[in-house]
Every structure is written in structure tokens, then in C-alpha cells.
TrEMBL record, chain A:
The name this protein goes by in its record: ABC transporter permease
Ranges for domain MacB-like periplasmic core: 18-220
Subcellular location: Cell membrane
Species the sequence originates in: Candidatus Methylomirabilis tolerans
Keywords noted in UniProt: Cell membrane, Membrane, Transmembrane, Transmembrane helix
Annotated ranges, domain ABC3 transporter permease C-terminal: 261-374
From TrEMBL, chain B:
Residues covered by the ABC3 transporter permease C-terminal domain: 260-380
Spans traversing the lipid bilayer: 20-39, 253-281, 302-333, 353-374
One Pfam entry name: FtsX
An example Gene Ontology molecular-function term: transmembrane transporter activity
Stated name of the protein: ABC transporter permease
InterPro entries according to UniProt: ABC3_permease_C, MacB_PCD, Macrolide_Exporter_MacB
Domain of life assignment: Bacteria
Major localization listed first in the record, in broad terms: membrane
One cellular-component annotation, GO: plasma membrane
Membrane topology: Multi-pass membrane protein
Keywords per UniProt: Cell membrane, Membrane, Transmembrane, Transmembrane helix
Subcellular location: Cell membrane
Length: 385, 388
């Protein structure tokens, strides 16, 4: 009790300096938390992937389609529970920077395979009836203020022309990890329109989504699918949905690594500010520490005083920093809109923030603490801050 | 009578540990600030260097990238025969009908499957891009299944050595050479014969048409004519403009992130400077009193302390920029979100970045040092001299 009182009193001796140090800490803890959340958001697609879902795509690259005829052949592979498909549409809504994923899908099979997308039955039924209907995610609806019944025009990049859709349903995610920034519409509509315009685009789909009966058979089934189409005009590459999503992240790895490095730099910067403060504090009070020694306090106790003060400041900084991370990340998420489909501060991030703060608190007190503990009484009493 | 600058510098020197920590914090901030801008500059430079000022690039209307574009043979023929297109040696039009596709190749070392751009070029394709030079082996022979790879591809991908084969489009393609495209986006591409590729990928249309203008000032006239032609639904752009647009999304993201980080970090660094300077004022109170008693004015004291903070910023700038300029040796390769394909580019230091980071560092020092300096200047002589 006595010890804590001393520590807190010491921390409050230089109100201005402590306040500044705290501010620096808060800023750093906050930015570290934000950066971690950005990295998490990068991997969100992979985190939301189900373990038994496979993605079959053209082996050359994702930009090449697969024939519609593959659907039934994949379904016939032993161990496959269900097959659906999705085609990347890449339309532009008003402006190229309003990016959100749009997929042409086969509604019944697709939504059966993705139970994490919750659609009201009545809305879903109207969507099924309307060939030009679309289902959009709650977040997407919020970003562009779209409601059921609104017209959603898209300018095609892969599929030329202007396409008009009507929002018929809005889906919610089953939890915070679900991406609700996507748009789905009828592949039939896309296909019929393309048949009229250019035959070469007709009866093609982007990727097949395969649900496997049993998690132990995932590897075997994905091999079986690829073998089935070996040496055909469109060879396939089948991998788990998770691997498929990670593939995108991997290709932009350089940026993720850069962001990670920067978040470590943040920690080093706080360390510099904090260590500086503690060094000054200890230097100013050398004569006091010497006095404490004269009174018979052990060197360990004196070192503990300094470490305690440093950790106390760090702890307060961490609390404020973590508390501000949430509103700031919400603001950031609102700013970037649908660029990051899922932007949530995870528990892990908070734990990391706490660990960093405490680590910095301890580390920055090491040198001054050692010095105070080992100072010769005579010298300490002679010292003038 | 101002206080000599050497006084400020000697004061910093007297407390080496603290000075080093503060300047180190600032150096880190300058480093991040400069590095992010260098990344952005490198990306832009690479993509701008890809376009030739006299070239045009024709893609399908609103396709945005060559991968998504399609230009039918008949349309390509119309473009080729426009009067503004330059006539090359031998009387051929300086135009190249190109097929651009993505293939997936594993990266060397990590084995990460990555999207690589494969470009099938026409007979004039090389003449249109004077920056492309073969550095080892030779160029592919027209009409064969030979390919030549860009330098960044040869460095980073499996199976791209001379004599090795890549398999795509149901065929094997033999690598016969490596080319250097002068740090442009072509360095991250694989080149082969256009007609061979269009067959291999069973396409009926080309992706784009690149052409040289005889007179670059005729661009607007040509653009108007082609874009209003009812037989064509195409976008006509200067090649340079087209490639600049390819950098927009990434560039925005990098700048946005960089700005946010720099602002947040600079707050931290300024606080560090403030703490240091306040401590400096506190420890030298009696000194300040003595200076005032000697007749130095409040203003001189203010300037002396500001100078001290500015020197801190300057040291931070020098160290930070030294590290940042070392980053020029680093090449980053990532997927360009817009073209969806691999692009390698370097951190590029420009004089503008040097200037901006200097201003940034000095402002940090100034803001951090301002309040403590004011405090120093406002001390009363008597109180200051009394302070132990």
C-alpha cells in the first residue's frame, strides 16, 4: 500500500511531463491497435471461410472462366454434397472508387451453401421471382443508403454496358466476421444477356463452389475434381475456400508486411518517448534515491519504485488508448466504406496492446532503475538533477 | 544581441542520451513519412515510365484494364488503318494488336501462386516500346511458342530461366530470353507472339491495340473520330495516361495510410521533443536567469531554445532520410489491385520528398519546442536566479 502510494505520488510530481508521456502512449497504443485491425481486416475473408467448402477455378488463372457443363460433372464426384457457382462481375457503381464485390450466382444452391448469410424468407422469395433482382449486404446497404426496392445501376467492365438491378433483399451476417458488403444477382440474367450480345461469353461461370460431405475427405475430393478435368480445354485448380482467400492476401503480402513493420516501429517510438521520460525522472531524483538508501531501503526496492512508476504510467496509457481504439476504428471503418468488408477490433488486438504497454513500461525503466539501484550514496547525495 | 547557436548545440551535446532518444524518435517518424512517399513515387514512376508519350492504347469502353478489355479483329483493323498512325520502316503501320491474359505462376522461394501478366504482341510490339532491351538470350521468334520474360519475372518466379518451359493455354512455351524494360511495368510481364497466344487461349478478340502517332498533337482528333465511330465501342487513351490510371487505387491507399500514420507518429515525436525541451528548461532555470541578468532579451532566449528544438528536428531528418534513402535498394512486388496482376517497383527518392520531409522534421521540432521555449522566455530573472 505504502509502495503504491509512493509510486503514484512520484508519477504525479511532474504533472505536465506525465500528461505528455501519457498522451504519447495513448497515441501509440491507439495507432498500434488500428494497424493490427487493418491487418486483421486483410485476412477477414480467410477467417470467415468454412473448412468443408472448396473453390474450383480455371487452372490458368482466376480471370479465365469455366464451362457450365462442369457443374454436373463436379456433382458426380464422390464425396461432393452440393455444387454452386459464382461469377465475378466487376461492375462500377457511380465511381470506380465505390468498390464492392458483385457476384452472379445460382441463388438456391448458393444461399443453401452459405448459411452465414441470413435473408428474410419473404424478401428471398421476391428476389427469386425477379430476374433483375439483387441481394445486398447490410453494410453495403448502409454505405450507399440503399433500401429494398431501390434501383442499383452498374457499369460493366468485363460485361459491357449498363446493367440495372433492383434491390430485392438485404442479407445480414450470422456474426461480426461475416462479410456483408457484397452484392449477389441472378447468373441466369447475366447469361441470357450475354447470349444475345456475344456468344463466347455464354454458358461460362467464374468459379464453382463445392461443399464436401466430410471434412476428412476435403483433400481427396479436391484432387478428384482436378483429375476429372485433366487435359481438357479448361483444366481446374481446386483448393479450400480458405486457401483461395489467403491466395489474395499472399499476393499483396508486401503491403501487409510493411504495415506490420510500421506497427513495430510504433512500439519503438513509444519506447523512446517513455524511456526518455523515465531517464529524466531518475536523473532528477538521484539524490532522493541516495537518501532512501541512507534510510535503509534496499536497492531492489528503489529499482521497483522506478519500474512501478513507469508501469503505472504505461497502464493508464493503455487503458485510455484501448478505450479510444474502438470509436476511432469505427470512424475509420465508416471512412473506408466497403474496402474492408469486416473491420472489427479483436480481443487478440486488445491483449497485444496491453502487452506492448506493459513491455514498454518495464523496458524503459530498466536502465534508470539499474542506475538508481547501484548509485553510490555519496555520489547520489552530491548529484544535482 | 542574439545568443550564439553554438550554445544551443552544446546544450544538446551535454545530454547525449536524451538528445539521441528524442532525435531517434523523430528520425523514425521521418523515415516512415519518407518511405511511404517513396513507395508511392516508385509505383507512379514505374507505371508512368511504361507509357510512351507518342503512343496510344485502345481498349474496350469502360473496361479499365487490358485484362478485362476485348477488341475484335475487325475493330483492330479499323484502328490500324487510321491516318494518324505512324508508318514504320518497310511501310507497316506502327500498331500492335495485343492479347493480355493472366496466368498463375509460383513465386521462387515461397511458392506463392501469383498472377502474372502474359502479353502477346504483334510484329510492331517491340518497335513501339523502345525502352525494352534484351539483356540475356534473345527475343522470341514471331509465330513460334517462344517467350521472353521481363527482368522482375526472371528474378522472382520459378521456371523462368532461359531454356525452361512454362505451361499455359494448353501448350508449353520455351523461355528464350530476358528483357529489361527500364524499370517500367513491362519488367513484370511475359511476352510472346500475339497470334500464337490468341489461339492458345481460344480467344476471338484481342485485348487492346497499341499504336504510335505520327504527330502526337493529332491525338484529340483521332480520339474523337474513333470514339464516335458507331462500329466501335472503345476508349482511346494516351498510353501514359492509361498506365497512370492503373496506379490510382494503390496510390490512394498508400498515400492515405501514409498520411494517417505520419500524423499519428508525429504527435508522438512532438510529445517526445516537448518533454525533452521542458526538462531542458527546468534543469537550466538558473542558467536562463544568468543569461537574462547579462542583458540577453526574452526574445533571444526564445530563439535559443527554438534553435535547440530545430536542431533536434534537423538531426532526426538527417538520420531518418539516410535510412530512407537506403530503402532505394529494396524492390517491392505486390499485386496491383487494379490490374489484378503482379507488379514490382522500387522505393524512389525524389527531391520533392527530401524537401517535404525536411519541412516535416523542422515543423515537428518547432511545434515540440515552442511551448517550452515560451516558458523559458517568460521566466522572471529573480525567480530564475533563485532556483537551485
Amino acid at each position: 500500500m505504502q509502495f503504491l502510494k509512493l509510486v503514484l505520488r512520484n508519477a504525479l510530481r511532474h504533472r505536465l511531463r506525465t500528461a505528455l508521456t501519457l498522451l504519447g502512449l495513448v497515441v501509440a497504443i491507439l495507432s498500434f491497435g488500428l494497424l493490427q485491425t487493418v491487418v486483421d481486416a486483410w485476412y477477414a475473408g480467410a477467417a470467415g471461410a468454412a473448412p468443408t467448402r472448396l473453390v474450383t477455378r480455371n487452372a490458368v488463372s482466376l480471370t479465365f472462366p469455366l464451362p457450365l457443363s462442369y457443374r454436373d460433372r463436379i456433382r458426380a464426384v464422390d464425396g461432393v454434397r452440393a455444387v454452386s457457382h459464382a461469377t465475378w462481375f466487376a461492375g462500377i457503381y457511380q465511381d470506380p472508387k465505390n468498390f464492392f464485390p458483385q457476384f452472379a450466382i445460382e441463388p438456391r444452391t448458393y444461399f443453401a451453401m452459405y448459411p452465414e448469410y441470413l435473408v428474410a424468407l419473404q424478401e428471398f422469395t421476391t428476389f427469386l421471382r425477379d430476374r433483375k433482382g439483387a441481394v445486398i449486404g447490410r453494410k453495403l446497404a448502409g454505405t450507399y443508403h440503399l433500401n429494398v426496392g431501390d434501383v442499383l445501376p452498374l457499369r460493366g467492365t468485363i460485361y459491357p454496358g449498363t446493367w440495372e438491378f433492383t434491390v430485392r433483399a438485404i442479407y445480414d451476417g450470422i456474426d461480426a466476421k461475416t462479410d456483408t458488403s457484397q452484392m449477389f444477382f441472378h447468373w441466369e440474367y447475366l447469361n441470357e444477356t450475354m447470349k444475345k450480345r456475344s456468344r463466347s461469353y455464354a454458358d461460362q461461370v467464374g468459379v464453382y463452389l463445392v461443399d464436401v460431405t466430410d471434412i476428412d475427405r476435403v483433400a481427396e475430393v479436391s484432387r478428384a475434381i482436378d483429375v476429372a478435368f485433366k487435359n481438357s480445354l479448361a483444366e481446374t485448380l481446386t483448393e479450400t475456400e480458405r486457401a483461395f482467400q489467403i491466395g489474395f492476401v499472399k499476393q499483396t503480402e508486401a503491403l501487409v508486411i510493411a504495415i506490420r513493420i510500421v506497427s513495430y516501429v510504433v512500439i519503438v517510438i513509444i519506447l523512446a518517448v517513455m524511456a526518455n521520460t523515465m531517464a529524466m525522472t531518475a536523473r532528477e531524483r538521484l539524490s532522493e534515491y541516495a537518501t532512501l538508501k541512507v534510510l535503509g531501503f534496499s536497492p531492489v526496492y528503489i529499482a521497483a519504485l522506478i519500474v512501478g512508476e513507469s508501469v503505472a504510467i504505461a497502464a493508464i496509457g493503455a487503458v485510455i488508448g484501448i478505450a479510444t481504439t474502438f470509436p476511432v476504428s469505427d470512424w475509420f471503418a465508416a471512412k473506408v466504406g466497403t474496402l474492408f468488408p469486416v473491420f472489427k477490433v479483436s480481443g487478440e488486438t486488445v491483449i497485444l496492446q496491453i502487452l506492448c504497454a506493459l513491455g514498454v513500461g518495464v523496458a524503459s525503466a530498466v536502465v534508470p532503475g539499474r542506475r538508481a539501484a547501484t548509485v553510490k550514496i555519496v555520489e547520489g547525495l552530491r548529484a544535482i538533477g | 544581441m542574439p545568443i550564439p547557436v553554438s550554445y544551443s548545440i552544446r546544450n544538446l551535446w551535454a545530454r547525449k542520451y536524451t538528445t539521441a532518444l528524442t532525435a531517434g524518435g523523430m528520425a523514425l517518424v521521418v523515415f516512415v513519412f519518407a518511405a511511404v512517399m517513396m513507395l508511392d513515387a516508385g509505383l507512379k514512376k514505374t507505371l508512368v515510365a511504361t507509357g510512351h508519350p507518342d503512343n496510344i492504347l485502345v481498349t474496350r469502353r469502360s473496361s479499365g484494364t487490358e485484362i478485362q478489355s476485348g477488341v475484335a479483329r475487325a475493330q483492330a483493323a479499323i484502328i490500324e488503318s487510321q491516318p494518324e498512325i505512324a508508318i514504320g520502316p518497310g511501310g507497316a503501320q506502327m500498331a500492335s494488336k495485343e492479347v493480355v491474359v493472366l496466368i498463375t505462376q509460383p513465386k521462387r522461394g515461397t511458392g506463392v501462386p501469383t498472377n502474372v501478366t502474359v502479353r502477346g504482341v504483334g510484329a510492331q510490339g517491340l518497335a513501339l516500346r523502345p525502352q525494352v532491351r534484351v539483356i540475356s538470350g534473345r527475343m522470341f521468334r514471331p509465330g513460334s511458342t517462344e517467350i521472353t520474360v521481363g527482368r522482375s519475372i526472371a528474378e522472382r518466379f520459378d521456371g523462368t530461366g532461359i531454356g525452361e518451359q512454362l505451361r499455359f493455354g494448353g501448350r508449353h512455351w520455351t523461355v528464350v530470353g530476358v528483357f529489361d524494360a527500364g524499370g517500367s511495368a513491362f519488367d513484370s510481364e511475359v511476352w510472346g507472339d500475339g497470334e500464337q497466344m490468341i489461339q492458345a487461349f481460344r480467344r476471338t478478340a484481342f485485348s487492346s491495340v497499341a499504336a504510335r502517332l505520327a504527330d502526337p498533337s493529332q491525338f484529340d482528333a483521332l480520339k474523337r473520330r474513333l470514339e464516335s465511330d458507331p462500329r466501335l465501342t472503345l476508349d482511346v487513351k494516351r498510353e501514359r495516361t492509361f498506365y497512370e490510371e492503373q496506379s490510382q487505387v494503390m496510390s490512394n491507399f498508400i498515400s492515405y495510410l501514409g498520411l494517417t500514420l505520419s500524423v499519428i507518429f508525429s504527435v508522438g515525436a512532438m510529445i517526445g521533443a516537448m518533454i525533452t525541451m521542458y526538462a531542458a528548461v527546468a534543469t537550466r532555470t538558473s542558467e536562463i536567469g544568468a543569461l537574462r541578468a547579462l542583458g540577453f532579451q526574452r526574445r533571444s532566449i526564445l530563439v535559443a531554445f527554438l534553435a535547440e528544438a530545430l536542431v533536434l528536428g534537423l538531426v532526426g531528418w538527417i538520420v531518418g532520410l539516410a535510412f530512407a534513402s537506403a530503402m532505394q535498394l529494396v524492390q517491392i512486388s505486390t499485386m496491383n489491385w487494379q490490374s489484378f496482376s503482379e507488379l514490382a517497383f522500387r522505393f524512389t527518392l525524389t527531391s520533392e520528398i527530401v524537401g517535404k520531409s525536411l519541412v516535416f522534421a523542422l515543423v515537428m521540432g518547432l511545434v515540440g519546442g515552442f511551448l517550452p521555449a515560451v516558458r523559458a522566455a517568460r521566466l522572471k530573472i529573480v525567480d530564475a536566479l533563485r532556483a537551485a
